[in-house]
Amino acid sequence: MLTNIWDTILYGPLLNALAFLVSIIPGGDVGVAIVILTLFVKTILFPLSQRSIESQMKMNLLAPELKKIKDSGKSKEEQAKQTFELYKNNKTNPFSGCLLVLIQIPIIFALYYVFLKGINLESGLLYSFINPPEHINMLFFGILDIGQKSIVLAVLAGVSQYFQARLMPKPVISDDKNSSFQNNFAKSMSTQMKYVFPFVIAFIAYSISGAVALYWITSNIFAVGQQMYANRKKEMALEVVK
User: Which of 23, 171, 195, 233 is the Cys-Cys partner for 133 at CB 3.0 to 4.6 Å?
Assistant: First the structure.
């Protein structure tokens, strides 16, 4: 049951889209098809991911006010009421960012799975109106074999992941020695995302194939551009306030 839903709603359409792109791209360059399909999916998800980024930015801006409420010494009920009012007045939902991310995960995972398995023409999932590619070229621009392990693409995947993590909205962390476990955990996660996760991505990308590495590179570059766009919008908004 779950397999049929997965194939019908997520994996099947993306597999057919990849097969279609390969069939119309000159030379059947799978690498170019991967880039185009990744950008297409990320563009469709752009409104959701953008709202998630902006939600995180708003939460960071509200952090000082939230700290004041927490340090006010008032009852838990009064703190909860003031916190709710703060979110309401600033039109912010602390859970919206997580919800938007959860919505995207199945789609992103399905896209990753398509590239992981490659164009499986014998899977029976190709639509009747999709012509199977007559020629499948795994040499990206005739240079890099994305069907095999590629240390070059793996390194680029790790580097692009680092820059994405560096531009991500940073949690507001107190420098107080008595900072809470939550602050310490947030600081640890932020450090790991920036300095550890890129190595993990590079290792996984090299262990699987150049196709998956190319997907990660494209996805990360898109995310970097999106974060720069969000940062620019934030700067322009602050300039207007001033």
Answer: 23
